[in-house]
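pls read this stuff:
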Amino acid sequence: MRVPNSVVLPVGTHVDCCQGEEVEEKTRDIMTKIMAMMVERKSNLAHFINNLEDSEEPEFYVDQWERLKEMESCTLTILNLVAINCTDHRDIKKLEATILEHVKNEELFPEVVRVLPPIYRQVEAAIVDIAQSEEMADHGMMDLQYLLSKLSHYKHLANLGRELLQDILRYLHRIGLVIWYEEIKHLESTVFLQPTFLITMFKV
């Protein structure tokens, strides 16, 4: 809800635990609750904005008002829920096909037609190679400058600059290959090459 132009695909699991028409009933119930949550969010934001605008000294709340208006402008597209049985490989393939179908939808993802420069793919392949190397620690954390020096050892990436690497890392962060919190001061020089390790840490 806080990310601009988000697209959410709800996935309902444990279909194998349902009987008869339960799947359709639960699907309708979940989608109804999601839509109700969206309506409530919109209403709450409008209420908070009106309160700030109607306050006796609105100039003191300009920052809050701007943040709320920014959140109000964030569009959130909710796709139809996909119900699957995780123990059935065919259902996993069905989910994969559904995701790919949506991702290729230019109306949902206008940037899908963007052609990436070859160096983006080269850096991506090199990072995967580094992440899978035996010398890589399980946590997958690496200093940004050290990563740049490791990448420069690849012949075709010898002239890779820090600024271009940062652009590429932003792309790789968006697609989930790496995690790079550039907006957090204490983490801006650290790249997480193993996102799964971070997920495990957050669970703990």
